[in-house]
Each structure stands twice: as C-alpha cells, then as structure tokens.
Specification:
The chain is α/β, with parallel strands linked by helices and about 525 residues long. About 35% of the residues lie in helices and about 20% in strands. The protein folds into 3 domains: about 5-195, Methylglyoxal synthase-like domain (Rossmann fold), CATH 3.40.50.1380; about 245-355, 3-Layer(aba) Sandwich (Cytidine Deaminase, domain 2), CATH 3.40.140.20; about 390-510, Cytidine Deaminase, domain 2 (3-Layer(aba) Sandwich), CATH 3.40.140.20. The chain has 19 helices and 21 strands.
C-alpha cells in the first residue's frame, strides 16, 4: 500500500456511531483530523489526536456554535482543485487542502418526531454549516471524499487500506449520496416547518416530499419490471409501510398494493371487521361481534374469489380466526396483532403475515399521490364520513332500521371499490361486488350475479348516481330492497320511478365517492 502523508480529514458529526474506530483507522493511515465542538471533545477524551477547527481558522466558534466552519480556511481547503493555479492561490493564503469531509447533520428529523416540538427547538436543530460542508465536498468529489453516514466508514477504510486512496468511482457514489442526503434534509425541514410555522398553503408551488426506501422488491407489476418500496417518513399511522412482517416471503409490488387496499378498507370500521381483497377490490367484507365471525362471513360472501386473496382484520388475529383460515389458501394476512395461541396454526400455513400495532380507527390527514407519465397528481386523502343529517329518503317506502344499517355498511365499502362501483350487502356483510366496469348497469349485473339468491332482501350501494334507470331495474328484479347512492343525475326522476315500481327504499347521500 502506498501511504500518503499529511492528508487531512474534517470530521463533524452529530451521530457518533462508529466514530472512534473510524478516526483511529484514519490516524493509522496517516491522516490528520480536524474537528469541531462535541466531535472534538469525543475524540480528544478518547486519546485520538485531533486539531480544533478554530486553530485552523484562527477564529473561535461564535453564536452558541452556530458559526464554526463557515470560513475561507475551511471551505477553500475543501473546494480547491488539484490544479496548479488553485494550489498556488490557497498556499498564498496559508490554507491547506482537505482530502476527506465526514459530516452527518443535526438531528432535525429526530427532534421533529418528538411530541409537540416547539418551533424554537426545530429551528435550533436546522444545520447550516453541515450541509455547506457536504455540498462543497460533493461538488469537489474529484479531489475530496465526502462521507455522510456511518454505514460508509467500513468501505472507505477498506479501500484506503487496499489501494492507498479512495477511488474515483467511490468518490462519485459518495458525492451522489451526499447531494441526496442534503436534498432530503431540506425536504424534511420544508415539510415540518410548514406546519410548525402555520403555513396554510395546501398545494405549494414547489412540491417536495421526502420518501425513504423500505426495501427492494422482487419485481414490479410484472417480472420484467424492477421495483422498490419507499415510505413517507412523517406518517406514523399504522399502515402497510409501517407494518412488521412476522413470516413469509418478501413482499412484491402487487402484494403491497393489495395489502394497502385491504387494510385501509377495514380501518373505516369501528366494529370487528374482516376484508378479503383480490386485485385491489374486495371479494368479501363483513362486520360482526367477533373477528372470527367477521372473517367467516367475509369468506362466505365469495369463497371462489377469496382463493389466494389478501386478508385484513381490524382486531387481533385470534386462535378461532386462525382455525377458520385453515380451509383456504391465502396470500397475505395483516392485522393489528397476532395472539400467541394463533401463531402455531399460522406457522404451518404458507402465507405472508404482517402486524400493524393498534389501529385505533384513526386516519391521519395527509396527501394522496397518483403518478402519471411526466407528473404527479396530488389531492387530500379521502377521509370522508357520511353526514347523517344530509341523508334523504326520496321514495314512497322508507328503509327499515336493518336496511339502513346495511346501507351504511355498504356505503363504507363502496368507496374502496374501483369505479363504477356497486356493493350488495345483507346482515353487515357483502354478498356481491361489481367493480371497475365501463357502465354502471354492468357493475350492477356483476354484483347481482355474484350474489345469486343472496340478492333477495339485500341492499345496494353505488359510488355515484345512476345515469339511467336500468341499474335499478336490474337490482329490483334480483330482489334488492333498498338502495343508497349520491343522486344528482338529470334522470333522477326516472331512477326514482323505477325504485317506487319495485318497492325499493332509496336514500340519497348527496356525495359521491369515486376511486380510480
């Protein structure tokens, strides 16, 4: 190994993981270390030779440490290229070059994650000098190695030992990682301060949202597509991104989409509720007095389609429910928790099992993003609940209390079904679902066919108005007794006439709930 003499590393870190070992290795490799504040103290107290930044700048740290490294003696030493012109210029000023910059930033994200941090605490944890050092070193990566995370230490030390220097390829990767880190850091600050400073702009001119990778996926929607999963670092709500996998193979792109759809469906219900979803749409969902009974009812709604489905529960997965699951192949199960008596049964089952922690039936307001080629659509998340006072019965016959209960159940379900969406329900369980058809009557026909004899006495929910009376005719002939839908069509009078002809009770919500 060819060892360089007199090389300098500037180290200033908030996260001191691995600091001592890494610094000791640098000293062994012939580096001089220049450091600030707490980092200097940590190294000095542990016997590692270190120089103060203030000795390099000839200027003390001021403003309670807010100004330490913002000085030409530091930044010129980082930004100077290996050209003769730059060398002569910095030497004339008594400035030495830096070969390495090791910086991780003030823990703004950690402070933001504490309960009710004050704006003052947040602002005081915005790093100024750190991002400046990182960006300067990354800009001059042809001459300087920049490290922004302790996970990078081992690779760099190994390369120094083996090659005597940090290779150009490694410096490029470290520079890219550095710019990504400062971009994320600023995005986090922007998002947190928007709330802390009470900025009311819902859709800002510049939309910057930090996402962090959870994992690489086996593939995307199809095996020839590559994919990865990223999570919103601010959303602490129980969700698929924050769930813990207990058993099973690695999740796929389609798994995550389906698990998310299933879990978000059951989160809308207060009673014990189970849902089975295939390809983003429910094959069966039911509410009951116990989670095991809810699962049995959801399975019974469409046992054929449930094969290979995704199951979500809004209560702990207990032994009785695990026993009920033995009879069918399921792809994935997600629930708040799994009872210890259920685990031995599930261990024998080839299924992916995830737990979320207590759901609490609380959904946190945030933005919903949908990607299109060349852009992204951003909207507020659909957290809608029916305004019971706005419900309007428009038919001659009013719904019974049982029909109204089932209609409210079906309405909660229909907002999670792809438009055009139709849900038939009875006894707080779906009996037929029609999803994603090009005509509303087509969805009604599919839901009725799925329900079979169960459509007799069932209620129907539609996510939007009926453009023609044919959907009501189809439902009426199948024995549906009550319908809930938004209303608002120019043909509402014809639709109402059809409902009255069949003796159907019809309730209008005044709001639609489309899902694309």
């Amino acid at each position: 190994m060819t060892e360089k003499k007199g090389r300098r590393a500037l180290i200033s870190v908030s996260d001191k993981t691995g600091l001592l070992g890494f610094s000791a290795d640098l000293i062994e490799l012939g580096f001089r270390i220049i450091s600030t504040g707490g980092t200097y103290k940590e190294l000095h107290e542990n016997g590692i030779p270190v120089e103060r930044v203030s000795d390099v700048t000839g200027f003390p740290e001021i403003l309670d440490g807010r100004v330490k490294t913002l000085h030409p003696a530091i930044h010129a030493g980082i930004l100077a290229m290996a050209s003769e012109e730059h060398q002569q210029e910095i030497e004339s000023k008594g400035i030495e070059r830096f070969d390495m910059v090791v910086v991780n930033l003030y823990p703004f994200e950690a402070v933001a994650g504490k309960p009710n941090p004050s704006p003052a605490d947040l602002i005081e944890n915005i790093d100024i000098g750190g991002p400046s050092l990182i960006r300067a070193a990354a800009k001059n990566h042809e001459n300087v190695a920049v490290l922004t995370d302790p996970s990078q230490y081992a690779e760099v030390i190994a390369e120094l030992r083996e090659k005597g220097d940090v290779s150009a390829g490694t410096r490029k990767r470290l520079a890219w990682a550095a710019f990504s880190r400062t971009a994320e850091y600023d995005a986090i600050i922007s998002n947190v301060l928007k709330g802390a400073l009470e900025i009311k702009e819902e859709f800002p001119e510049r939309f910057v949202v930090p996402f962090r990778k959870v994992q690489d996926l086996r593939y995307g929607e199809n095996p020839y597509q590559k994919a990865a999963f990223y999570r919103d670092i601010f959303l602490k709500e129980p969700c698929v991104a924050n769930a813990k996998k207990l058993k099973g193979k690695e999740l796929s792109f389609n798994n995550i989409l389906d698990i998310n759809a299933t879990l978000e469906l059951v989160k809308d219900f207060d009673e014990p509720t189970a849902a089975i979803v295939k390809h983003m749409n429910p094959s069966g969902i039911a509410s009951a007095s116990s989670i095991s009974e809810a699962f049995k009812m959801a399975l019974g709604a469409d046992p054929l389609s449930a094969y290979g489905g995704i199951v979500a529960l809004n209560r702990e997965l207990d032994k009785d429910t695990a026993i009920a699951m033995k009879s069918i192949f399921l792809d994935s199960i997600i629930s708040p928790s799994v009872h210890k008596d259920a685990m031995p049964l599930l261990e024998k089952k080839k299924v992916m099992l995830l737990e979320t922690g207590n759901l609490g039936n609380v959904k946190m307001p945030n933005l919903d993003l949908k990607r299109v080629v060349g852009g992204v659509l951003v909207q507020s998340r659909d957290l809608s609940r029916l305004d019971m006072s706005a419900l309007k019965t428009v038919t001659k016959r009013k719904p019974t209390s049982e029909e109204m209960e089932d209609m409210l159940f079906a309405w909660k379900v229909v907002k999670h079904v792809t438009s055009n969406a139709i849900v038939l329900a009875k006894g707080k369980a779906t009996v037929g679902v029609g999803a994603g058809q090009m005509s509303r009557v087509g969805s009604v026909a599919i839901a009725v066919k799925k329900a079979g004899e169960k459509s007799q006495g069932a209620v129907m929910a539609s996510d939007a108005f009926f453009p023609f009376r044919d959907g009501v005719d189809t439902a009426g002939k199948a024995g549906v007794t009550a319908i809930i839908h938004p209303g608002g069509s120019i043909r509402d009078p014809e639709v109402l006439d059809a409902a009255n002809e069949y003796g159907i009770a019809m309730v209008l919500t005044g709001m639609r709930c489309l899902r694309h």
